[in-house]
Design a protein that fits this description.
It is a single chain. This protein has 262 residues and is an alpha/beta fold. The chain folds into 2 domains: 162 residues, Spore Coat Polysaccharide Biosynthesis Protein SpsA, Chain A, CATH 3.90.550; 89 residues. It is built from 7 helices and 13 strands. Strands 3-2-1-4-9-6-12 form a 7-stranded mixed sheet, with helices on both faces. The protein has a 4-stranded mixed sheet with strand order 5-13-7-8. The longest helix is centred in the C-terminal third of the chain and has 31 residues. The chain is globular and about 55 Å long. The two termini are 31 Å apart. The C terminus is likely disordered.
Length: 262
Amino acid sequence: MSLSVTIVCLNEAVEIRACLESVRWADEIVVCDSGSTDGTLEICRAYTDKIFTDPWRGFSDHKNLALDRAAHEWVLSLDADERVTPELAAEIRATLEAPGADGYTIPRRNYFVGRWIRHGGWYPDRTIRLFRRGTGRFHPRAVHEAVQVEGAVGHLTQPFDHFTYRSLSAYLQRMDRYSTLAADELWREGRRARIMDLSLRPLVTFLRMYLYQAGFRDGTPGLILAGLYAAQTVAKYAKLWERAQRVSDAGPSAGGGGESRP
């Protein structure tokens, strides 16, 4: 079975070479960029000639755009900060020799400030990334988009690596964007921030990650992550509250929002 790898990116010169190198064995690599100016495209041209530049459409729509441009029967969707290990590459090739499902979940090994986080809900963090083209699409969401497959879903055993936050500053910058996107999504669903959302939800988030999901076993990074996730919960509902205040003060036209770039 032939395989296309799809990648969406914006200014990923630091990350994307390692990503591309990890999948250079694939039959095709499709890159959908949204306006990089840091040399990302020059790096990509060493690995593929299927490079496209389009205005940013949002995470789900842009990944589906890359999917539509794939030529082969099977697709592996990656982000620029993800890497396919040699063990996973071998498992994918063996699986596609006689596939028994239409899509496969893959464990994701997430790294925080250079360290693999094993607890706190960060591992195995299974996600569908390998699927038969025509049976899988990214479900439209503002953030944390995911593939939905029409058909049977199997499970691979080897993980891929995700170097998600190389510094605390990187987390805080992304937290601001993602909390805005999450607040926008809640607003469109008709949700409004309540006192318990601002007071109890952050506490529950911290306790779930640090105690119930054993984040304490990751030491100081586990404690920091539980605190950051609690802070992100506060930010999400505070922005939802702020949205309601703006609408109340200025009328319904103030309630609009849009999806940020990656």
